[in-house]
Amino acid sequence: MASPTTPTTTRVPTSGSVDEDAIPGEDTSEVTKLFAERLQAWKHAVTYLEDYITATEKTQHAHGKEYERVLKTVKDPLREGHHFDQALGGIAGMFENIRANTQGISNQHFETAKQLKASILPIFERLHTEIKNKTKELTKGAGKGSKAVDKARASTQKHIELLGQHTAVFDSSGGRITAADDPYVLQRGILHRLNKQVQEENNNRQDLISVQNSFAQFEAHVIQTIQHGMGQFMQVVNTQAEQTKIMYGEMVGTAQRVPLDFEWNAFVERNNNILIDPSSPARTVSNIQFPNQNHRATQPLIAGALERKGKIMRSYDTNYYVVTPSKFLHEFKTDDDFAKDPTPELSLYLPDCVVGAVSGQKFNVKGKDVSKGKLGNSFSMSHELAFKAHTPQAATQWWEIIRQAAGKVSTEVPDASAPTSPVTGNTSPGGSLNGTSKQPAPLQTEGLEKKEGVASPATAGTSGPTPISAAPASGVAPASGVAGEPGKY
């Protein structure tokens, strides 16, 4: 019989006010192994009872044969029997009674052996089979849940390590990284996988709680079956002899005095540091901490909703946009990190882009979509993207942050309608990047470049351009125009 093992790890109940590790240190299969070991103990206990009934049955069969030998001692008529009266009540009748009763005792032992093998032993054999089936159910149910948790945790750990690598690259290379390796994107990928992991952990936790609760009922059933089998055993062997009745009665009485929940309560008390507390709260992503979670490369300079004009329908679509310290302008369908993997629909590397002037709620950015990586970037064409914010103030703030990161700044105004003389040049007020003439807004100043800064729309029309300092290298986002929500609209 396997010796019991002493648990060496301790499970600390979760708390809603304590930050938790993304990858907990406990073994996900610890509870399953404990229950499997407990089922093994119950199976061995039932095996002991099966062996006891089998040995008793063989002993009863052997006793039947031994009483047949005893019967032979009185089978022949008494010698000089003619000296005794053959009527009942005399000495001859006494020996006839001895022979009949001895034959009855022998037959009774054979009958007892037959009943033990046919009626009592199957009770414990069926219980043995139930315990084995319970072990298979535990392995296929909770065991698979533990494997799913381990797989989800491995995926989360892999992306956390990936974030650590690229945040280190961000710090060492001055922020020049690819869009796919942007720490902001990687962090959102971690949150997506972490959400899946937490779901698997909570599902496995709920499965283990169900198993834990079902074990109490199963153990009560095991003890009831043992009590029932032992009761039937007592009725069979109690006819053998009154002297053995007390011993068997005491044996069975001891088994019947065991409360149904006695073993279970003692088991819970001994292992309360390993078993799950059903009243403890489930894990939440908001309480989990992981390395580089608050790294400056993961914090957006500005984030919020903008409208972008479509290429075909020419209507505005609202999406979620982010400017990261890595100088990328990412487009997402939504700001939800959990519904699906937050992969950018569009990524512009702003140092390779040209930003036009802001006009009211609108501004344009011209550049290549680099969200498909190096190969996609090689074949992609530059596009001029027209954006519209909800308010002019919001547009100014977005434009200012994009201007500080952009490679070039032009005075091209979106949807300009005032005619002016065309002027060629890359950064002239009327020139475009491809040499075609544009119509700038009447109030926009000329000669704006990234190093000198660009006057905001609020100062347009004054006597000269007002220099605006570049964004700090640390990537700190400017204050938002919306009270209480920096950088979001």
From TrEMBL:
Residues 1-14, 469-483 have a biased composition (Low complexity). InterPro entries: AH/BAR_dom_sf (IPR027267), BAR_4 (IPR046868), PH-like_dom_sf (IPR011993), PH_domain (IPR001849), SLM1/RGC1-like_PH (IPR046869), Slm1_PH (IPR043453). Keywords: Phosphoprotein. Residues 299-407 form the PH domain. CDD domains: PH_Slm1 (cd13311). Residues 418-439 have a biased composition (Polar residues). It comes from the Eukaryota. Residues 1-25, 410-489 are annotated as: Disordered. PANTHER family: CYTOSKELETAL SIGNALING PROTEIN SLM1. This is PH domain-containing protein.
